[in-house]
Amino acid sequence: MWEIQLFKLNFDHLEVKAVSDVVTGGWLSMGEEINKFETAFGAFLGDGAHCKAVSNGTAALHMALLALDVGPGDEVVIPSLTFVADVNVVNLVGASPILADATSLDNWNMSLESVEQQITEKTKAVIVVHYAGYPCRDIMAISQLCRDKGIGLIEDVAHAPGATVDGKVCGTFGDVGCFSFFSNKNLSIGEGGMVSTLDVELNKRLGYLRSHGMTTLTLDRHKGRAITYDVAQPGLNYRMDEMRAAIGSVQLDKLPAGNLRRGELTDRYRSKLEGSPVTMPFAHQASNFTSVYHILPVLLPEKTDRVAVIGALKEKRIQSSIHYPPFWDFTAYKGQFSPNDSPVTADICRRQLTLPLFPTMTEDEVDQVCNALLEAIA
Ligand SMILES: Cc1ncc(COP(=O)(O)O)c(C=O)c1O
After folding, report:
1. Options 3.40.50.1240, 1.20.1250.20, 3.90.1150.10, 3.30.70.100; which CATH number does 256-377 get?
2. Quick one: pLDDT band at residue 83, thresholds 50, 70, 90?
3. Residue ranges of domains in the chain
4. Do the domains 256-377 and 13-101+108-251 match in fold?
């Protein structure tokens, strides 16, 4: 249907072999592939990060909140511009999500000031998102603020595996880093996620939360290392299976090159759209920040009919999307939030459009998308 789709998998015979080796090997869950993937991901993050592979990014966020004892009566500050998973998990643990506005029409992440404004004595945690793969400019300052005030810091790194600030990798600034490996992410598995922490005690709690609070695994018993198990705390089943972990390891090897390629294509978009009425955010990035360019968001001129633009692109068989519809428009959250409290996010949400971006895209395809877009808004 699409000539240029929003995202294409970067899979080849290596992912096929990885899955086929697991299936023929006969061990399907929480085995050597999980260990391999977690160890490699920990090395990728650096700083001695401990990692636990989980079933998806939402599970990772849920576990992070539970590990930090966030519950009824607590407030959690989250960005107003993010995927609904962040607001859902906070509500589901019985806490209240408090929205921090985007910084500006250029910097779509929340700022130290917008977080500080929302902190009260009830604040138990802050969730930072590195939107579109661009590290939150104030992550260091927000991390310091949380330490000073004894507030938990969760990094939602779903968009930003490999992004860095001063050489330090996103996911290692807070208490817990939460990654998603959903199909369209920079590291694609289909469904999958990772929790990371530098804290040994939190790592232990996260391990219990992932697997029923059990003190030994099926593999330990299979290998004769344990006969039975204790349950140290209540837990869930948020495990990843071996097939996914095997794909994850292959994708992790491909990630650095894929991230670089996304950067080149983003530069191409910038040069093609420069001087046009369509603007691209994050134009002014500090040199010590490295983005991983998860998606290609643009801001359409005021009063543009966005639905008509999406339709015009569709006629040329070019797929586009919106990241994100605002929470206050969702049936579940009507009345809980107001656009007036997040005016910058509200403006972005009205005019935002996401264009195709994936590592195997060509420069020619970028040019086709830009030409079609400029024609549509002319
Ligand atoms: C910012 C953000 N947070 C969390 C998630 C949830 O991840 P998953 O779909 O793996 O549950 C996503 C996924 O789209 C996301 O984009």
Report:
1. 3.90.1150.10
2. very high
3. 13-101+108-251, 256-377
4. no
Ligand 1: lining residues by beta carbon, under 6 Å: 56-58, 82-83, 85-86, 129, 156, 158-159, 180, 182, 193
Catalytic residue among 52, 124, 185, 272: 185
End-to-end CA distance of the chain: 25
62 within 8 A of 127, measured Cβ to Cβ? no
pTM of the model: 0.98
Q: Verify whether residue 272 is a known catalytic residue.
A: no
Owner of token pair 């609070």: 213
**Higher per-residue pLDDT: 222 or 351:** 351
How many angstroms separate the alpha carbon of residue 228 from the centre of ligand 1?
35
- For residue range 265-313, what is the model confidence (pLDDT) as tens digits? 999 999 999 999 999 999 988 999 999 999 999 999 999 999 999 999 9
CA distances from 137 to 103, 143, 319 (A): 10, 11, 30
pLDDT at residue number 204: 98
Instruction: Give the domain 13-101+108-251 fold.
Output: Aspartate Aminotransferase; domain 2 (3.40.640)
* Cα torsion angle, 154, 157, 161, 167, sign: negative
